[in-house]
Amino acid sequence: MRQYPVLARMLPVVLLTFAAAPVWAAEGVPAGETSADVPALSEFHEVIFPLWHEAWPAKNVQMMKELLPQVQEHVRNIREAELPGILRDHKAAWDEGVKALGETTARYEKAAAANDEKALLDAVEALHARFEGLVRVVRPAMKELDAYHVELYRVYHKLMPAKDVAGVREASVTMAKRCQDLVAAPVPKRFASREAEIRAVFASLCKATDGLAEAAKGQDPDRVSKAVEAVHSEYQKTEKLFE
Predict the structure, then answer these.
(1) CA 199 to chain centroid
(2) pTM, 2 dp
(3) Can you list the domains of the chain with their CATH numbers?
C-alpha cells in the first residue's frame, strides 16, 4: 500500500486541532464521561487530510481509490463508537450524521468501482463535509462553555438525582465562577455577527446559576431541583446558539 509521509508531519497538528477541550475535573464522575471526545472521529482525520488536501485538488483518482479501504475502516469504527455521557443530548444529531457518513461512503465506493472521476470528486467533497458536520456535533464551541457544562452535567445527572443538596451547593459555587469566565471570554469569530444575542444569553445563564447558588444555601431539595432545571434550560438555550 502506498504511504503518505504527510501524515507523520501533520500528526501534531491533528492532535492539537481535533483534541477536545481540556478534561475538567468533576468529582465523582469518570473523566471519560465528561470529555467531549470521540477518538474514532479524531483518527478519521488522518485519512481525511490527504484525501481532501492532496487527492481531491489534484483530481488524483488513483490516490482516492487507494485511500478507500482506510476510509471504510474508519467509518466502521465511527459507527461502533459510543458517545461519552456529556454528549448524550447530541445523540440524535450524531446518529443522523453517522448515517449520512455511511451513505456518502457508499457513493464513494460506487464511484471508485466505476472509475468515475467526477463522481469520485463529488463523493470525496461530500465525505469531507460529513466529517466536518460530525466534528461540529462533538466539539465544544468554547472551552469556557465546556468547562461550565462539565459541572452542570455532574449536578444534573449525578447530584440532583441523588438529592445531594450539599453537593449541589458546592458545585453551584464552581458553576458561578465558570459562568463568569464564560462572560469574560471572547466569542468565536465565526459567531461575531451574533455576539450581542450570545452575550444576552450568557447573562441569563449566569443569572439562573446565581439563583441556583442561592437556592442551594437552603435545605429544600424541591426548590433546588427547580433551580437546577432552570439552569439546565438556560444552558440548552446557550448551546443552541452555537449549532
Answers:
(1) 21
(2) 0.66
(3) 6-138 (1.20.120), 143-240 (1.20.120.290)
